[in-house]
Design brief:
α1 packs across α2, α2 runs parallel beside α3 and α3 packs parallel to α4. The protein has a six-stranded parallel beta sheet with strand order 3-4-2-1-5-6, sandwiched between helices. Helices cover 40% and strands 13% of the residues. The protein is an alpha/beta fold. It has a single domain, classed as 3-Layer(aba) Sandwich (Undecaprenyl pyrophosphate synthetase), CATH 3.40.1180.10. The structure holds farnesyl diphosphate. The site of farnesyl diphosphate has 18 residues, from α1, α2 and α3.
Length: 261
């Protein structure tokens, strides 16, 4: 059973082995954390291994971070697993990643379900094999009514692609006379995003040194705070995750207004 550090169901915090937990400001916890898990290839290279070994190691990190986020009581965790641009990678690497997603669902589904995780995929599922699409649907259906952390996996996902799909849906409704252009507002767009149902993204973490969004959650990150680290994703630890949350708690979020005195 995963421990619950703050509130939530399950047993309360016992001897947390992460002293940093004490430093998290419970009142200023991000509701939704999004992560660009970058640097798998560089990590592998650094170890003298082939690139795909970095992805395998990356899955281990992902498991730890999901558990930590759930323990802490984060409402939603979104991870960038495969972008619409990642198809440009060598076939062997793409195939490997597809197998890894499938294996991950096979191996982790039961435990995630027991822990009340609600898994959800963002992106164009039709780009994947029939078998993988079936697995994705089954996982989503199984966990639909769970009450724990919402875990979004962005796969074959691109923020621009997502917004194009939203625009197509809205344009269709206008063309059919079901919606007037004047009635379109931010909520209309929100309702059609892949992330619909998740709270707004509060914090975006990117590992491995690059400081860009890379077509990730373009709409959703409008008011997000950003936190970057040089650590490659396979070396990213729960301690560092907590460090990002601590830093988030100190940020002055004004949402275009002025700081309240
Ligand atoms: C970026 O590192 C990482 C990816 C493109 C894949 C991310 C996938 C995982 C962490 C594992 C699988 C995930 C799930 C949901 C099971 P990179 O390869 O671009 O690294 P580099 O920039 O150093 O080359």
């Amino acid at each position: 059973m995963w421990k619950k550090i703050f509130g939530g169901k399950g047993s309360p915090s016992d001897s947390s082995n992460l002293p940093l937990f004490d430093r998290i400001d419970r009142e200023r916890l991000p509701r939704h954390v999004a992560v660009i898990m970058d640097g798998n290839g560089r990590w592998a290279q650094g170890q003298g291994l082939i690139r795909t070994a970095g992805h395998t190691a990356g899955v281990k990190t992902l498991k730890r971070i999901l558990k930590t986020a759930s323990d802490i009581g984060i409402e939603a965790l979104t991870v960038y697993a495969f972008s619409t641009e990642n198809w440009k990678r060598p076939h062997g690497e793409v195939d490997f990643l597809m197998k890894l997603f499938s294996e991950y669902l096979d191996k982790e589904l039961q435990e995630m379900n027991e822990e009340q995780v609600r898994i959800h995929f963002l992106g164009r599922m039709e780009g994947f094999s029939e078998a993988l699409q079936r697995q994705v649907r089954q996982a989503e259906d199984l966990m639909r009514n769970n009450t724990g952390i919402r875990f979004n996996i962005a796969a074959n996902y691109g923020g621009q692609d997502e917004l194009v799909r939203v625009m197509q849906t809205i344009a269709r409704q206008v063309a059919e006379g079901k919606l007037s252009p004047e009635a379109i507002d931010e909520q209309t767009v929100e309702r059609h995003l892949d992330t619909y149902g998740s709270p707004p993204v509060d914090l975006v973490i990117r590992t491995s040194g690059d400081m860009r969004l890379s077509n990730f959650l373009l709409w959703q990150a409008a008011y997000a705070e950003f936190w970057f680290t040089d650590t490659n994703w396979p070396d990213f630890t729960p301690e560092e995750f907590v460090e990002a949350l601590v830093e988030f708690g100190k940020r002055d979020r004004r949402f275009g207004g002025l700081t309240k005195k």
